[in-house]
Specification:
This protein is of the alpha+beta class and about 525 residues long. Helix content is about 35%, strand content about 20%.
Length: about 525
Amino acid sequence: MTDTPPAASPPSPPHSRTDRLLASLAGILAGYGGLAAAGLVAVVVRPEAGPVPAVGDAVVDLTPTGVKEWAIRTFGESDKAVLEFGILVLLAALAAGLGRLALRSTAAALAGVALVGAVGALAAVTRPDSESASDALPSLVGAATAAALLYVLVRRLTRPRPAAARAAGRRGFLVAAAGAAAGSTGALVLGRTVGSTRSEHATASRNALRLPRPASPAPAVPPGAQLPVEGISPFVTPNRDFYRVDTALVVPRVDADTWRLRIHGRGVARERVLTLPELLRREVVERDVTLACVSNEVGGPLVGNARWLGVRLADLLRECGVRPPSAGGPADQLVARSVDGMTIGTPVEDVMDGRDALLAFGMNGEPLPFAHGFPVRMLVPGLYGYVSACKWISSVELTTFDAYDAYWVPRGWAAEAPVKTQSRIDTPRALGRVTAGPVAVAGVAWAQHRGISRVQVRVDDGPWQDAGLGTEDSRDTWRQWLYRWQAAPGRHTLTVRATDGTGAVQTERRTGTMPDGATGLHSVVVTVDPA
């Protein structure tokens, strides 16, 4: 008697379009769960160690300078939000692709997830501010969570079953997918709740900070500094409108109670570590200072004027035994480090030459906003921000330009960058329309630490005409100007130029922002309608 072999199970039909769509959904849900788990772990480790901030910062570091400049010009202060959104979109597309790959090879898809996690972990531990291998944990835990979810979800689609049972399998998938989405959302909410609790400590420390009265107050803004012209930039820029350019995807929220500032390095005879209360007990000065970003194009918005409250950095350095190079000091560069690892290099001579170089903790009458460096930032009048205005400062190291390149220098920017004389037309706007007759042409001009002595306006190819100047506050602030134009009907080009306090006239030569700031004259084209 011959044994009859058992009937073979019918082969599973090829995966349908519905299966492929569900597999893509499985990948996206796995990615969502992985990011939620990573975010929860990052709250415990460090928010900056999360995969999106870590990869985003790595992208910023690796992006060519020209692309960064384009992003700043195009998106302004929204450039980081655009970058973060782009990373999330890319991750979603990658997750969907890995989900579809899992239909054919679960092992290959899981290897892909592991690779993504490794990239995130590497980006986290190689951040400039990373001090521990624990920064890799959020990405590794996130990858493990994503891999587990992907395996569980896709298995419901790939398990061999007769065609008639496929519908039941898909229903099981949808139930599991709903559970994964709910669990991931719960983890996300928990992470944000815990994170907000930690952030609340920093917020509470800011709310509790009472700014001291300055021993050396800034003079009142003089009458006439703010011209009564509609459309001109306010002489004092409100905090909410002050430009922000930095590389931090996650704004550091530093607890003032735990903040410390270390001063060390070459020529420092007495190293110091200061707390915020110790700074507040020092002689406090108040000054009006205009800040400008080196990425500001001719006529651009990346400049603002504020009233700052802080202590003189030069006094602290002298107490630590620091001498400027002109007095035989061995260090010619001061490297300021932020809590997020950013490094900014400043000439020691400029910090100690008598100008009001500050460690500031107040801005326009309130503690620094988090986005502008709370609890303490540095600023040096007359220098572009990337070589002077370190936010969230945590240490000051004295060194030399030969020994160390700060963050922006290897990326093509100059090591030293005094602010260049610039002027801008605020009103009328470019491509605007005005009515023939008297028209107020007005704006601002700046040449910090040199001051503005003259502003002139040219209509089309006509002669340069002097504009009236607002009252000067100080040579460290911008100055408003006004030219009363008798506008004739037609299309006209208005151009402005400034002369600084040394008598040097703003150059017409047009250059880009690299390596040390843009040059050229700002022009606007306007149409004048008949009266």
